[in-house]
């Protein structure tokens, strides 16, 4: 089955740029990836400037 949604790739630098807008944070993820939440910061970065 095929879903009609685009696949969006987000770079680590894009995630770092929006990391301050993340509402959730994991100390382990910060230590390993340098952002508070991989899923949330990736979603914020992919959503664009008006994301919240």
Domain module tally? 1
Distance between the termini: 31 Å
Order of helices and strands: HHH
Mean of pLDDT: 93
Rg for CA atoms? 12 Å
The number of strands is 0
What is the approximate shape? globular
How big a fraction of the residues is strand? under 5%
Instruction: Please give the share of residues in helix.
Output: 40-55%
Instruction: Show unreliable segments.
Output: none
For the largest beta-sheet, the strand count, sense and barrel status come to: none
Which structural class fits the helix and strand makeup? mainly alpha
Count of DSSP H/I helices: 3
Organism: marine sediment metagenome
Domain CobE/GbiG C-terminal: 2-49
Pfam family, one: CbiG_C
InterPro entries: CobE/GbiG_C (IPR002750), CobE/GbiG_C_sf (IPR036518)
What does this entry look like structurally?
It comes from marine sediment metagenome. The structure is a single chain. The chain is an all-alpha fold. Helices cover 46% and strands 0% of the residues. It has one domain (1-52). It has helices at residues 12-18, 27-33, 38-47. The longest helix is centred in the last third of the chain and has 10 residues, at 38-47. The chain is globular and about 35 Å long. The protein starts with 11 loop residues before the first helix and ends in a 5-residue tail after the last helix. The relative contact order is 0.22. The model has no long low-confidence stretch (mean pLDDT 93).
How is the topology of this model organized?
Layout: H1 12-18, H2 27-33, H3 38-47
InterPro entries: CobE/GbiG_C, CobE/GbiG_C_sf
Pfam family, one: CbiG_C
Organism: marine sediment metagenome
């Amino acid at each position: 089955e095929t879903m009609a949604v685009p696949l969006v790739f987000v770079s680590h630098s894009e995630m770092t740029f929006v990391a301050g807008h993340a509402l959730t944070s994991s100390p382990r993820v910060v230590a390993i990836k340098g952002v508070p939440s991989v899923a949330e910061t990736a979603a914020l970065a992919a959503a664009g400037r008006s994301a919240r």
